[in-house]
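Archive entry: two folds, one per protein. Generate the first.
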Amino acid sequence: MMGDKTQEEIYMDQVNDFRAKQLSQCDAPVAAKRWRKLSPNTTKDYISAYRKLRDTLGDDLIACCHDIDDNTTKLIGAGFTNSRIRNLYSAYINLMYANDVCSQVCDEYKKYLKNYQESYQQSQKSNELTSPSQIENMITYSELLDYIKKLRTDIKSQGDSDVLLILEISKTLPYRINEFANMKYIDNKDFVLLFNDEKNKYNWLVKKGWDYFFHFRQYETTKSRPTEIQNIDKPLVKIIRAHIKDRKGVMTAWGYHLFHYTPEQLSKLMIKVSQKIIGKNVGSAILRKVVVSHYYQTTKEKTQEQETFAHAIGHSQSIQNLIYNKNIGE
């Protein structure tokens, strides 16, 4: 520990300092893009990754980074999937750079990521599901509607109610679940008074008279974000209004949390509730595949409608067809 900081936070400071130094020395835009400041969500993910790596590999991650084969064996033995190991190693490589680990060691981890990415993209070219976990937990769109109906009649906690609202939104526009984490609810008259950096601090549900819209923060990262401002259709407005009224009554003070969870807490809650109601683990990836495939499985050719839909939830039409548009039935 150093002061009140955890070892993971110290590691994160090292990574941020290194990236800032590299960025200050960049002339070319492509190089600058590589080293730009990490988003708040990525920062949280990296801190979590360093915690998981230390729990599995040992307290000193720099001392134990030199044997990738042994480290990968340990992570697999601890139950981490290949995709999760990929995410852990992305954070690990940044830490190695920050601690001047020799390039040969870094290259081994980068090779692992490249091989995983190539294998993953090849597997996704199939119109069928390939992940055993997703095959086991996949539902159809009609089953999603049944799940929502069952949950609506079996609300026993605020968490159940929050999950229900996310499902009601997701059946039309399946945003990433972490987009809802710590989302705030605000009246437009207060929202317009915020500075741009304040607006971009959270994702917002904004009430404007009898209408509502989402305002999604935007990051300077390679990861696509949902469109900044999205109007909400009347049927969904009615559902949202009922949820808010049931939870808090008439909202007047700005800054009220619509969903007061971290991304990790919200993901766990989604899984917990779906297990309870339908006996399956229905999270962000499955919801996206269910809804995208329902709308576009039979029309995979590029259309403006699908391009707009894909951009609204934060990716391109080509990525949507590659990753999410699968033959899962109705």
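Generate the second and append.
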Amino acid sequence: MTMSHHLTDDFWESLGPFVPFLHELFHNQAQQLVQLQMANSALEDCALEAQSNTMDAATKAMPSIAQAIFVKV
């Protein structure tokens, strides 16, 4: 359901001859909002995956770093 469907008939009638234009505008903006929300969700998923991968790499690197420090001492 788009944002334009949440508006009352009285509201639309009060807009007079601009109703078709404004209704289309609201509809298009609502579609764009959904697309942006989907893109944002995908980006958040990528960011979480990258963070997880970084943490995994750091965890795997710790023993090697500790061994290198121990060998040099």
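Annotation attached to the second fold: The chain has one domain: 3-72. The chain has two helices and no strands.
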